[in-house]
């Protein structure tokens, strides 16, 4: 019976181990599925929608090649990708209902669909604005992947996002597109079968050894047995040698090899069973290959609530934009290159830096504008919108460099193919406290310039503050502002102007004036229904001789205007960029100045 048990155990162990090994070898399912198609339309863009990418669960590995000298894959919201294409023809990658394979469908341009000529028949019509067509490096994308003759990307694209495949926006896009999805080919019972088979095998060996031991014990002579007649002793032939077990080195080596085979097999099988693919999971965690976590993370609350508009940018997207701006600004500041600067700056921020470059060309020791740190992003406040223009406010502070001031930037993107431009760049005040803002994954709505839901409408903040700069506590708006802790007002307020007037010689006079600048007032809502408002104010100083003599401009005014002496007088204008917190209407709080930047923007002789 013991031998029967050993034989059954050997058989069961062999079946279990063989079936466990077969699950990881001959019976192993493929670890991925691939689909490919060829694009033949010759269009500049190819779009792969989220439905196509979600044909199978898990990460998608997208590869494009063929035809193009440069290849790129850009990840963006489906609406943003459509806005970039903007009515141009493109090829859409979908699934053929008959074959089940990927297929390319050409989508005609707007002019092709309507049959209208893109050219205007009106010879006097203004020429169309030509926007950049190369999608590489656009701020619109959450991520992009590039290559020379081919490009590949491995990511998990959630619903509502798509991929744009292109070369340079002018030449045809890559013609070969393939998508690979990983499959869960784990065999959770292979490990238990192999290990269980080994245990049963050991049990069989134990049963076999027990059976042999029991059989030998039964064959031993028993004690107190009756003695029978002795058999005659038969002499052993001398020619026959006694056969004894080998005890030499050869015998030991032979037996070791016999034992080593199962030991090596058992060790190899045990080690192979250590993989997580060999064992069942009881914690409910999904396989790594079937992970549906977006890469990079692009999930926003707008996906959960269709009525909630998405934020203009994600934090990783904003960080990438800021790094580009910081590098370009550093190069432009060093080379005094206004042309390069104009590719990323506009409005008041551009005017201040351009004037600074002009002054430093003649006056090298003149202070440069505050550097823009490359990060980290301490605060990101994107506008909650799916249209253009789009506004983003961010606060940057490089804590590793104590010489770099905390900087607030207000960026604006005019159209899908335009990059974000810096319209305001201000240094925060030492005691500035930014009010609570919506999380970056949600975004903040823009407050209308004439909104009555704030203590002052955003479009009235600049003229009110300008009036206080000229009149002080005599201004009707004085009570709305926290003037006691405002460091900028101490530099440009009434007391400062009176001191400047008093320090002029008797042979000259000075007049002050100011006005709201041409920079657009931008306001983003705070959590308490207030607003963060950025404004532009231009201050003008005019110095004239009073005794028929001349006046001599100094420092920046002299360097900018190029005038040594003037009998008419000198006019110089300073551009102010000011960041405010405006409380909600009915609040007992006052408007607080959070940060500012000021610099000369023009100087000339009085006409």
UniProtKB/TrEMBL annotation:
Keywords: Membrane, Transmembrane, Transmembrane helix. The chain crosses the membrane at residues 189-213, 258-279. The keyword Repressor does not apply. Signal peptide: none annotated. Residues 106-126, 221-240, 284-311 are annotated as: Disordered. Residues 311-604 form the DUF8094 domain. InterPro entries: DUF8094. This is DUF8094 domain-containing protein. Residues 117-126, 285-305 have a biased composition (Low complexity). It holds the Pfam family DUF8094. The keyword Membrane applies.
């Amino acid at each position: 019976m013991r031998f029967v048990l050993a034989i059954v155990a050997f058989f069961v162990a062999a079946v279990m181990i063989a079936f466990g090994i077969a699950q990881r070898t001959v019976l192993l399912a493929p670890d991925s599925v691939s689909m490919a198609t060829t694009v033949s339309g010759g269009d500049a863009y190819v779009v792969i929608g989220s439905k196509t990418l979600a044909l199978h669960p898990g990460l998608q590995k997208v590869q494009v090649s063929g035809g193009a000298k440069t290849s790129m894959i850009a990840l963006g919201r489906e609406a943003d990708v459509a806005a970039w294409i903007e009515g141009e023809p493109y090829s859409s990658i979908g699934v053929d209902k008959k074959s089940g394979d990927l297929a390319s469908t050409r989508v005609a341009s707007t002019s092709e669909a309507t049959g209208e000529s893109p050219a205007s028949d009106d010879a006097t019509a203004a020429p169309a604005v030509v926007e950049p067509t190369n999608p590489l490096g656009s701020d619109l994308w959450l991520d992009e992947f590039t290559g020379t003759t081919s490009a590949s990307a491995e990511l998990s694209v959630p619903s509502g996002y798509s991929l744009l495949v292109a070369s340079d926006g002018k030449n045809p896009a890559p013609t070969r597109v393939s998508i690979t999805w990983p499959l869960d080919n784990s065999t959770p019972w292979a490990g238990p079968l192999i290990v269980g088979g080994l245990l049963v095998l050991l049990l069989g060996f134990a049963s076999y050894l027990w059976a042999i031991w029991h059989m030998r014990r039964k064959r031993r002579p028993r004690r107190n047995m009756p003695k029978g007649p002795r058999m005659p002793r038969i002499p052993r032939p001398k020619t026959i040698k006694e056969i004894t077990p080998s005890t030499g080195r050869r015998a030991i080596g032979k037996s070791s090899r016999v034992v080593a085979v199962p030991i090596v097999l058992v060790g190899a099988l045990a080690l192979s069973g250590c993989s997580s693919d060999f064992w069942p999971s009881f914690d409910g965690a999904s396989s790594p290959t079937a992970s549906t976590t977006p890469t990079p993370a692009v999930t926003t609350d707008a996906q959960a609530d269709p009525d909630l508009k998405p934020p203009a940018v994600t934090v990783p997207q904003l960080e990438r934009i800021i790094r580009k701006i910081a590098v370009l600004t550093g190069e432009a500041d060093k080379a005094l290159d206004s042309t390069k600067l104009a590719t990323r700056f506009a409005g008041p921020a551009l005017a201040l830096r351009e004037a600074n470059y002009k002054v430093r060309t003649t006056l090298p020791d003149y202070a440069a504008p505050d550097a823009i740190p490359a990060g980290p992003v301490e605060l990101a406040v994107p506008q909650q919108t799916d249209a253009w223009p789009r506004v983003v406010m961010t606060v940057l502070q490089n804590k590793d460099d104590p010489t770099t001031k905390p900087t607030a930037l207000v960026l604006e993107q005019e159209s899908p193919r335009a990059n974000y431009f810096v319209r305001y760049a201000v240094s925060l005040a030492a005691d500035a406290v930014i009010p609570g803002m919506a999380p970056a994954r949600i975004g903040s709505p823009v407050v209308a310039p004439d909104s009555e839901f704030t203590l002052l409408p955003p479009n009235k903040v600049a003229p009110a503050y300008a009036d206080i700069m000229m009149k002080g506590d005599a201004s009707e708006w004085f009570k709305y502002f926290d003037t006691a802790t405002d460091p900028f007002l101490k530099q440009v307020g009434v007391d400062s102007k009176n001191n400047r007037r008093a320090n002029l010689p008797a042979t000259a006079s000075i007049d002050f004036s100011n006005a709201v600048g041409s920079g657009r007032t931008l306001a983003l809502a705070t959590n308490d229904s207030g607003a963060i408002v950025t404004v532009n104010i231009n201050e003008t100083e005019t110095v004239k001789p009073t005794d028929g003599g001349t006046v001599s401009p100094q420092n920046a005014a002299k360097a900018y205007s190029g005038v040594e002496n003037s009998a008419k007088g000198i006019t110089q204008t300073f551009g102010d960029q000011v960041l405010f917190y405006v409380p909600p209407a009915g609040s007992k709080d006052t408007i607080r100045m959070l940060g500012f930047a000021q610099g000369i923007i023009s100087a000339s002789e009085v006409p």
